[in-house]
């Protein structure tokens, strides 16, 4: 049941991934799930760029160099992490949003629709036994230097994907009742 998949969804980080490759068919299924997200005025603002193989390494190198260029006191461990995380992933999907050219709805609604598409991806990965993680580093503001983004398109982060071996711990959440007011 979907409720069980929702409860099992976790952030599984690149350091936890093994070397098992992710098939193109699996990635396509995850992207198809994304495409069924709700969208106001049917703008379907989500855009994705799939990086595998050498493209992942180029991304890691770009992020590390941009970090060293823009941070006055870059830390070596962070440089290494920026290089290694894409390499460890079976695939990295850049999460982008294409703003409606007519601006027929508020931008936050298109960001929300894109986030719903990512949640669909995450739930699909959970069902398929693929670990995943949405990373939104400050460096995403420079992604127009890496990708050819269209007018009105922005990068919102990266969706890392990879198979994993270890048991993922359960998460504890505060009671939902404390977050709800009945009127």
Task: Walk me through what this model shows.
There is one protein chain. The protein is an alpha+beta fold. It has five helices and four strands; from the N terminus they run ααβααβαββ. The chain has helices at residues 2-8, 24-34, 54-70, 76-88, 107-128, and strands at 46-51, 91-98, 131-135, 153-162. The chain has a four-stranded antiparallel sheet, with helices on both faces. Helix 2 crosses helix 5 and helix 3 packs antiparallel against helix 4. It is globular.
- H-E string: HHEHHEHEE
User: What's the pLDDT, averaged over the residues?
Assistant: 97
Shape: globular
The whole-angstrom Rg is 17 Å
Helical residues, percent: 25-40%
Family: Belongs to the nitroreductase family.
Cofactor: FMN
Keywords: Flavoprotein, FMN, NAD, NADP, Oxidoreductase
EC number: 1.-.-.-
Question: How are the secondary structure elements laid out?
Answer:
Blueprint: H1 2-8, H2 24-34, E1 46-51, H3 54-70, H4 76-88, E2 91-98, H5 107-128, E3 131-135, E4 153-162
Antiparallel strand pairs: 1-2, 2-4, 3-4
Give a short synopsis of this structure:
With 183 residues, the chain is an alpha+beta fold.
What structural keywords apply?
16% strand, globular, alpha+beta, Putative NAD(P)H nitroreductase, 4-stranded antiparallel β-sheet, YdjA-like, FMN, 5 helices
């Amino acid at each position: 049941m979907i409720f069980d998949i929702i409860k099992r969804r976790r952030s599984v980080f690149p350091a936890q991934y093994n070397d098992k490759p992710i098939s193109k068919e699996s990635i396509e299924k995850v992207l198809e799930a994304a495409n069924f997200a709700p969208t106001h005025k049917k703008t379907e603002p989500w855009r994705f760029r799939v990086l595998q193989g050498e493209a992942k390494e180029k991304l890691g190198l770009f992020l590390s160099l941009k970090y060293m260029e823009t941070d006055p006191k870059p830390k070596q461990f962070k440089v290494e992490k920026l290089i290694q995380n894409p390499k460890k992933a079976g695939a990295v999907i850049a999460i982008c949003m294409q703003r409606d050219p007519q601006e027929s709805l508020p931008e936050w609604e298109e960001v929300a629709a894109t986030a719903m598409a990512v949640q669909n991806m995450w739930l699909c990965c959970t069902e398929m036994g693929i670990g995943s993680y949405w990373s939104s580093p400050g460096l995403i503001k420079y992604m127009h230097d890496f990708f050819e983004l269209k007018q009105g398109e922005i990068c919102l982060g990266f969706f890392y994907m990879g198979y994993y071996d270890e048991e993922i711990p359960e998460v504890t959440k505060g009671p939902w009742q404390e977050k709800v007011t009945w009127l």
